């Protein structure tokens, strides 16, 4: 319960900080459109197990907090994703529910929920979890947008085993 309060306070602080900057368009393209495309491309690369394409969305200055895991960075997330996608006995599929993108100059706040379906080779059971989160993107010197911070957690009431017959 304390953790939920901390995440809520952190999310409110991020939104309050970001709201102090005026929203602007980026290089004739809407920053939100670019970010949406980046998230869609990441989702497709992850689901296709294209490990070489999944870390490009993260800034090398990335700091993140996921659930009870201590703060981590780029050098933690990328090797973990490479290992996960390289494990052929583990199947996972992300679905993106993009709730909101707020662009303030060179910073954007993205509110989203990832749905993760996971199963092990040879098992007919799939575990579904909801991962609500908030990503902070920053426009880079080359004009691209990268995630510099994110907060996410697994919703404690979302994990459930689904029988593969129910998914058809």
Summarize the structure.
The chain has 168 residues and is of the alpha+beta class. It has three helices and seven strands, in the order H-H-E-E-H-E-E-E-E-E. Strands 1, 2, 3, 4, 5, 6 and 7 form a seven-stranded mixed sheet that branches.
Q: Topology of this protein?
A:
Layout: H1 2-18, H2 31-47, E1 58-66, E2 72-73, H3 74-86, E3 90-104, E4 107-120, E5 125-139, E6 145-152, E7 160-163
Parallel strand pairs: 1-6
Antiparallel strand pairs: 1-2, 3-4, 4-5, 5-6, 5-7
What report would you give on this structure?
It is a single chain. This protein has 168 residues and is of the alpha+beta class. The protein has one domain (2-167): Roll (Nuclear Transport Factor 2, Chain: A), CATH 3.10.450.50. The protein has helices at residues 2-18, 31-47, 74-86, and strands at 58-66, 72-73, 90-104, 107-120, 125-139, 145-152, 160-163. Strands 1, 2, 3, 4, 5, 6 and 7 form a seven-stranded mixed sheet that branches. β3 (90-104) and β4 (107-120) form a beta hairpin. The longest helix is centred in the N-terminal third of the chain and has 17 residues, at 2-18. It is globular, with a radius of gyration of 17 Å. It starts with a helix and ends in a 5-residue tail after the last strand.
C-alpha Rg (nearest Å): 17 Å
- Cα(first) to Cα(last) distance is 36 Å
Largest sheet: 7 strands, mixed
What general form does the structure show? globular
**What string, H for helix and E for strand, traces the elements in order?**
HHEEHEEEEE
Level-1 CATH class name: Alpha Beta
CATH domain topology: Nuclear Transport Factor 2, Chain: A
CATH architectural name: Roll
């Amino acid at each position: 319960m304390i953790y939920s309060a901390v995440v809520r306070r952190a999310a409110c602080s991020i939104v309050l900080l970001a709201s102090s900057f005026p929203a602007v368009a980026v290089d004739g393209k809407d920053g939100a459109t670019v970010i949406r495309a980046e998230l869609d491309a990441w989702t497709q690369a992850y689901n296709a197990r294209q490990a070489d394409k999944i870390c490009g969305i993260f800034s090398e200055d990335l700091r993140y907090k996921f659930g009870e895991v201590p703060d981590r960075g780029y050098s933690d997330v990328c090797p973990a994703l490479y290992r996960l996608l390289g494990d052929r006995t583990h199947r996972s599929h992300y679905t993106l529910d993009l709730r909101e993108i707020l662009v303030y100059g060179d910073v954007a706040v993205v509110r989203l929920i990832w749905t993760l379906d996971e199963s092990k080779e040879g098992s007919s059971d799939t575990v579904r979890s909801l991962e609500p989160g908030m990503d902070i993107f920053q426009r880079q010197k080359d004009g691209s947008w990268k995630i510099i911070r994110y907060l996410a957690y697994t919703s404690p009431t979302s994990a459930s085993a689904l029988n593969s017959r129910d998914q058809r």
